[in-house]
Specification:
It contains 18 helices and 18 strands. It has 562 residues and is α+β, with helices and mostly antiparallel strands. It has one domain. A hairpin with a 4-residue loop joins β10 and β11. It is globular and about 75 Å long. The two termini are 29 Å apart.
């Protein structure tokens, strides 16, 4: 049924495009959602944002949810739909069924909270794990080292299944939006004004369940309440759209390396990842815990903390956001040290009082006698730190989720035949925006890279030798914004499809913490100078400011059309 509906929508788009073509030789400038069908009409190559194998002509409210042509041609639509089913539904505390195994602590009960409409998280004024459209993840780190604190998970959890308690009391988390005035007084020379705001998030020492620890010189050090404010800081990071992720996975490692090498002589690159003198990688991605330790080029997350998509943010999140384990990860996601939450819980009288009932429900047949000795402190600690939990998600379910994840299409670019699009594209490049937001890449043979060695080429949709248009250089840069991202280094976010967020129900805001409410605000945040330095995009913002109002609107129109 879903596939038939998709074909009907595509047929409608084809008919509409044909009707327009019969009425006029030129597509109307006012047709803001013109999309057409690239195989029928003569559209430029950047119409196919995801290449021939990865683009959908659907631009409706479900544009981000479409399977790629590669999924359909590989006969994987059923698996794709089953993976989508896992993404769209909440997990629960049941011990049987497809969505069992939530907790004992978790970040969200399901994926849709962070990815409404499969896109970007939305700007929030408060923090709640069960709040839909809340794509915010807490980033709690040591001011001295920029490293995550040790006593909570890298993606800190604020919810728990009884009798366990949340690692952070989310009722004590406060988000304030502050006004910011840039060096131009938030005003263009022709009088047009704009507003800039940024989030300030605070979590008091009292909100933490376990003691607060950081690591200094390889040793865990507790931070007492009176020293907390001087040592710990918090930032927000919002999720990005997940459509097209599989296409980025198909970019060859050596092509990404070549891009870093090309930029290295002209701009400072993250010294923790890149050796500027040798012009080569200093740090590759490797998974030695669940994977085989093979080194890969870094390509996913703002922090470039992940390599191939089959061991990327989504593969990680379906486990650690919900704490639903699977055959390759048969343990709980608790804290970075792997012990502080378990130690605190095991000694908590209220947790002890409810543990026997809980563990009898989790392990009714007593398959794990080490959890039922009667020594509650020992039983709780042993359960929480176990590496042999019964899998709650099957390998087949996980495989289907990855087919879905790698199989999400990119919406075709809109308005590509209009003069306004073409002029906006020219001005975008002329201002230097295309330096970091590199327009296109060509995929390679797209042989599957899986550090866990679970999947092969035959198991996944693939995108060999496609020209794709994500508008990212896959490199980290610094913008030196007020309350900037942790470390200051952020991977250039792809721009493709973003303006469809309003239709798809995703967050329409831009930048890593949703501070920019529209394209103009996003551009102007790129023009920051602080005591720490000058934005890598500062000169491009200067050029943008020299444009007329009409030209600025053309650039915005182009960005909203790709």
């Amino acid at each position: 049924m879903k596939k038939q509906m998709k074909k009907s929508r595509m047929l409608l788009a084809v008919c509409a495009a044909a009707l327009l073509a019969s009425c006029s030789d030129d597509v109307s400038e006012s047709l803001s959602w013109e999309i057409g069908e690239g195989t029928t009409l003569d559209y430029p190559e950047d119409y196919f944002a995801g290449g021939r194998l990865g683009t959908t002509s659907n631009n409706s409210s479900v544009a981000f949810k479409q399977p790629t042509p590669a999924v359909e041609s590989a006969g994987m639509v059923t698996a794709f739909n089953e993976g989508e089913y896992l993404f769209e539904n909440d997990f629960n505390e049941n011990t049987e069924g497809a969505f069992r195994g939530l907790g004992p602590v978790y970040v969200r009960p399901g994926c849709g909270y962070c990815h409404p409409g499969y896109g970007h998280g939305a700007r929030q004024n408060s923090y709640a794990a069960n709040q839909h459209r809340n794509g915010y993840l807490l980033v709690i780190y040591d001011k001295q080292t920029n490293a995550y604190i040790r006593s909570v998970a890298g993606m800190p959890q604020t919810a728990a299944v009884k009798p366990f308690k949340a690692p952070i009391d989310e009722t004590q988390i406060k988000i304030d939006w502050k006004a910011y005035t840039d060096e131009w007084g938030n005003r263009f020379d022709d009088g047009e004004t704009y507003e800039l705001t940024y989030p300030e998030v605070t979590i008091p020492h009292s909100a933490y369940y376990a003691p607060v620890y950081v690591q200094r010189n390889g040793v865990d050090v507790e931070i007492p309440a009176e020293e907390y404010a001087d040592n710990i800081d918090v930032r927000l990071e919002s999720t990005i759209g997940i459509y097209g992720t599989g296409l980025l996975d198909a970019i060859p490692d050596d092509s990404i390396t070549a891009q870093w090498q090309a930029e290295s002589p002209y701009v400072t690159l993250n010294p923790s990842l890149w050796d500027q003198g040798a012009n080569t990688w200093k740090s590759y991605y490797a998974n030695t815990l669940q994977g085989d330790g093979t080194q890969y080029v870094r390509r996913y997350t703002y922090a470039l903390s992940r390599g191939p998509v089959l061991d990327g943010a989504g593969a990680n999140a379906i486990w650690n956001i919900t704490n639903v384990n699977r055959p390759d990860r048969r343990y709980h996601y608790l804290d970075l040290a792997g012990k502080y939450y378990a130690e605190k819980s095991s000694k908590d009288p209220e947790v002890q009082a409810g543990f026997t009932e809980y563990i009898n429900r989790i392990d009714p047949e007593g398959k794990h006698p080490e959890w039922h000795t009667g020594n509650l402190e020992s039983d709780i600690h042993t359960y929480l730190t176990s590496k042999t939990l019964e899998p709650e998600m099957t390998t087949e379910q996980y495989k289907n989720l990855m087919i879905w994840h790698r199989g999400l299409a990119v919406p075709a670019a809109r308005n590509t035949t209009t003069d306004k699009f073409k002029e906006g594209k020219r001005l975008f490049a002329e201002a230097g925006c295309a330096t970091c937001h590199r327009p296109s890449w060509t995929t390679g043979s797209d042989d599957i890279q899986d550090p866990n060695r679970l999947f092969t080429n035959a198991d996944m949709p693939r995108y060999p030798y496609q020209k794709i248009w994500p508008y990212t250089d896959m490199v980290q840069h610094r913008l030196f914004m007020k309350n900037d991202i942790r470390t200051g280094w952020c991977r250039t976010t792809p721009l493709w499809g973003r303006e469809l967020a309003s239709k798809c129900g995703s967050g329409t805001e831009r930048l890593h913490d949703c501070r920019a409410r529209n394209v103009i605000e996003a551009i102007m945040w790129h023009g920051c100078t602080t005591e720490g330095g000058k934005s890598d995009a500062y000169e491009s913002v200067l050029k943008f400011r020299q444009l007329s109002k009409e030209q600025r609107d053309q650039v915005v129109f182009f960005i909203e059309s790709i």
